[in-house]
Design a protein that fits this description.
The chain is an all-alpha fold and 398 residues long. It contains 17 helices and no strands. Its main location: membrane.
Length: 398
């Protein structure tokens, strides 16, 4: 268990082009006035992923299997399976195009082969890595990419010479109004990713098999908190860098030349660093999104989640193929990514409610079920996201 790094895989999964784009837009348009939403998201992610990890350790099952076991009514069970397959399976296929496009944009800054060509090459690389079926190889690549991201975005931020006074002023004046609500939901949706709950439970279930459960839970909890905090710090650095370059400046950010537009503030070298970070972010998510979908869909359909199994490989391969195909068509990713992240924020309460229900099953979880405090914290997260989503919907009519 000591060698397991599933927490960092979760960090790798949520720090993708969607996170870089959303954080950049938040910083460019609203400065650091929305950091409160990021802090809330990091806290909620640590809490919910801890639940998913405890579920995996206690039951040795993935979240999809556990959710199905919780529901006895056949019709409700069918509806649940349909929700998982559509929201996680089909949804991740849509995300994959953004992941590959984001990574391709980063590589295209180094060698101008076109984002479509790079997306195709990256899709092949992701497929080859997943095809090996060797978890430790996949884990090592993803963890390395997380640290590359952390390093390059931090260096980029330092080179940008941040205005500490302006940053502190914005941090102390949070905003929540109709103009920022979509971006707030996007920040939440890009950090608290529903498919990561399925991925974490399945990974921990496999890595903790045969080990002492108490020790496994403690190690997962500590590592997840550390890794997710690193992911939150990366997001904050990206937001602050964009704030320095764009906030209160007459410049419009566009995903296709994001790093080029940072040139006046960051200089040539930092521009390359940002492109490298965007590539790392895209590749990590291009690997984890299909992997998470395969675990979720196979669990929902009652199919073996053996990484070398035909059905498991078929699910992630279809998602990569869809992602590559859409990316090669050249659709502009910026509006789609922001919309997808906001939609993710609206989907979250449904998955979180199911998770809370499962985590209170005393018969299945025993001493690892939720405490009263965990239930209160989880309920607050769900209520907050529902409140923000309702505010957004009502704002469309009033």
């Amino acid at each position: 268990m000591a060698k397991d790094k599933s927490g960092y895989i979760i960090a790798a999964a949520f720090i993708g082009p969607g996170t870089v784009t959303t954080a950049s837009l938040a910083g460019a348009n609203f400065g650091l006035h929305l950091v409160w939403a990021l802090l809330f998201s990091v806290f909620a992610t640590i809490m919910l992923q801890d639940m998913a990890a405890r579920l995996g350790v206690a039951t040795q099952k993935g979240l999809a299997d556990a959710m199905k076991d919780q529901i006895a009514h056949p019709t409700l069970k069918i509806l649940l399976v349909a929700l998982i397959v559509s929201a996680i399976g089909i949804g991740n296929a849509a995300y994959e195009s953004g992941n590959l496009t984001g990574a391709a944009i980063g590589l295209n800054a180094f060698a101008n082969l076109g984002t479509g060509t790079w997306a195709f090459i990256l899709g092949i690389c992701a497929a080859l890595l997943l095809w090996t079926g060797r978890y430790q190889w996949i884990e090592s690549v993803l963890v390395a990419l997380v640290f590359i991201m952390a390093g390059v975005f931090f260096i980029t931020f330092i080179v940008a010479k941040p205005d500490v006074v302006a940053m502190a002023s914005q941090l102390l004046t949070p905003r929540l109004d109709s103009d920022v609500i979509t971006t707030v939901l996007a920040l939440i949706g890009t950090t608290i990713v529903p498919y990561n709950l399925f991925l974490h439970a399945s990974l921990v279930a496999k890595s903790s098999a045969g080990l002492d459960k108490d020790q496994a839970v403690k190690r997962c909890r500590r590592q997840s908190a550390q890794a997710i905090s690193v992911g939150g710090l990366i997001t904050l650095i990206v937001m602050a860098t964009a704030m320095m370059a764009f906030f209160n400046h007459a410049i419009t950010m566009d995903a296709a030349n994001m790093s080029e537009q940072l040139k006046p503030v960051l200089g040539d070298k930092a521009q390359w660093f940002f492109a490298l970070g965007l590539f790392a972010a895209g590749l990590t998510s291009a690997i984890t999104a299909p992997l998470a979908a395969a675990y979720a869909v196979c669990g929902a359909l009652g199919i073996s989640d053996n990484m070398k199994g035909k059905a498991f490989r078929a699910v992630w391969l279809i998602i990569i193929l869809v992602g590559v195909s859409v990316a090669m068509m050249g659709f502009k990713p910026l509006p789609a990514i922001l919309f997808a992240q906001a939609t993710n924020g609206l989907l979250l309460p449904i998955i979180a409610l199911f998770l809370l229900m499962v985590m209170n099953n005393k018969e299945a979880l025993g001493e690892y079920r939720n405490s009263t405090l965990s239930n209160i914290a989880g309920g607050c997260v769900v209520a907050t996201v529902i409140g923000l989503g309702s505010y957004k919907v009502l704002g469309l009519f009033f």
